[in-house]
């Protein structure tokens, strides 16, 4: 049985996760640029919110964006593993479970940050679990066919 649909959806999800990871790491590197963030914090500072509070906010955001990138890379790797398992119909049940768990946990951990790529992996995982293999043709004649031949 061909698993083209599941593989294509998995690859689309993997590509989108790669873009999320790239965006996460670029965002984290920008937020880790002390001089740039210091200048931005000084420009944004108000009497109600001093620059030091803004810098603290940038540091927190940097950690969150880095987590976003790491989760995206892990999901990307698991998506590739699942797609390889689907190739040739090797282990479709295991691949489906990996795809579903990856999409659900990735979405929860990133607080809906990667929901679009996760939808592709979720659909591929459900398809992998739901599709039943066609029964193999039976080479031995059934009892009915043997009775029919004798009459």
Written description of the protein model:
- By secondary structure, the chain is mainly α.
- It is built from six helices and no strands.
- It has helices spanning 4-31, 34-44, 51-86, 92-109, 115-130, 143-150.
- The longest helix has 36 residues, at 51-86.
- It is rod-shaped and about 80 Å long.
- The model has no long low-confidence stretch (mean pLDDT 88).
Shape: rod-shaped
Which value, in Å, is the CA radius of gyration?
A: 25 Å
The N- to C-terminal Cα distance equals 38 Å
* Total beta strands: 0
Q: How would you state the average pLDDT, rounded?
A: 88
Topology at a glance:
Layout: H1 4-31, H2 34-44, H3 51-86, H4 92-109, H5 115-130, H6 143-150
Q: Could you name the key traits of this structure?
A:
0% strand; 6 helices; rod-shaped; mainly alpha; 77% helix
Write a concise synopsis of the structure shown:
The protein contains six helices and no strands.
């Amino acid at each position: 049985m061909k698993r083209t649909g599941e593989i294509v959806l998995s690859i689309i999800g993997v590509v989108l996760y790669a873009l999320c990871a790239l965006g996460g790491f670029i965002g984290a590197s920008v937020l880790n640029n002390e001089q740039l963030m210091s200048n931005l914090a000084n420009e944004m500072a108000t009497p109600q919110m001093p620059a030091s509070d803004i810098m603290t906010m940038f540091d927190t955001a940097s950690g969150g964006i880095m987590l976003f990138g790491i989760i995206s890379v892990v999901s990307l790797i698991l998506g590739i593993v699942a797609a390889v398992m689907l190739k040739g119909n090797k282990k479709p049940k295991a691949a489906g479970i990996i795809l579903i768990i990856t999409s659900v946990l990735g979405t929860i951990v990133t607080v809906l940050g990667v929901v679009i790529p996760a939808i592709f992996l979720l659909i591929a995982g459900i398809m992998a679990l739901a599709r039943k293999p066609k029964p193999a043709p039976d080479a031995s004649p059934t009892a009915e066919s043997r009775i029919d031949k004798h009459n």
